[in-house]
Amino acid sequence: MFFVPESPRFLLQKDDRENAKKSLSWFRHSTLEQIEEEFHTLLVSVTESQDKGSSWKDVFKVPVLKPIVIGMTLMFVQQCSGILPITLYTVDIFHSARTGINDNLSTNIVGLIQVVATITAALVVDRYGRRLLLLLSTGFMTISMSGMASFFYMKNRNNDPANQFSSIGHLSWLPLTSLLIFVVAFSIGVGPISWVYMGEILPNHVRGKCSGIVTITSWSLSFAITLGFGGLITVVGEDGGYGIFGLVSLIGFVFIYFCLPETKGRTLDEIQIHFAKKNNLKNNLTEDL
């Protein structure tokens, strides 16, 4: 990040047009002449946004409320899919699964894969788009948590502790494989892209307020899930806990498929026009009826 310039929009808000134009040229890999038209459009957008101002009433207008709801839902899926409990309790999970693989080694493998997957996401997000990666992410997270739930269901179904693992010994690979798939899927989609997507869809004139709402939602859910994970496993069992995480991922997949527009290659103004048009279309249909 040391070598990355400030965003053109931020520099224009500080009335630094020269550096804003250089920044836009850097991000677009284009000459100053080639980005002249886009720079003018951006300048008009920033000027209008500053003239408009903002209040808390603006947050509850439909074109603003929709992006907030989308952002909060993405954060719900991100946190309630179980990433933090799984990351924090990885050693305990493998110890409980008794896969025959060293618990600490398995945890190190999961951590290494998470780092590699996150770097990969940063490289491919602009190539394949946000929506596709989010769909792939939640889809594979659902599959992996279903695998974990199935393993612990079969393990706990045997009431004889001495022979508890005899019927699933051939599946000792499943917990590690499922967690690796889950971590990779989370790290290429729901993990980093939820934050990227939130920054792209929130209107600029109320971004501070909206970002605060979504961020508070995210970390409140994170605190609640981490605190309540042990109690959840006690109440519904390990299979039930991972089943719930899989269900959350499935809900996320359905929500993303039906409700999230693609933002790849679109400016902030184009995205806001998208939400405003949908609202205007709904109002027009209501008036016709």
Q: How many distinct beta strands?
A: 0
Mean pLDDT: 82
Shape call: elongated
| Amino- and carboxy-terminal Cα gap | 53 Å
Give the number of helices. 13
**Unreliable residue stretches:** 284-289
Cα Rg: 23 Å
Please describe what this structure looks like.
By secondary structure, this protein is mainly α. Helix content is 79%, strand content 0%. The chain has 13 helices and no strands. Helix 5 (62-80) packs antiparallel against helix 11 (190-201) and helix 9 packs antiparallel against helix 11. The longest helix has 53 residues, at 207-259. The radius of gyration is 23 Å and the shape is elongated.
Give the helix/strand layout.
Elements: H1 8-13, H2 17-28, H3 36-52, H4 56-59, H5 62-80, H6 83-88, H7 90-97, H8 103-128, H9 130-157, H10 174-188, H11 190-201, H12 207-259, H13 268-288
Helix pairs in contact: 5-11, 5-12, 5-13, 7-8, 8-10, 9-10, 9-11, 9-12, 10-11
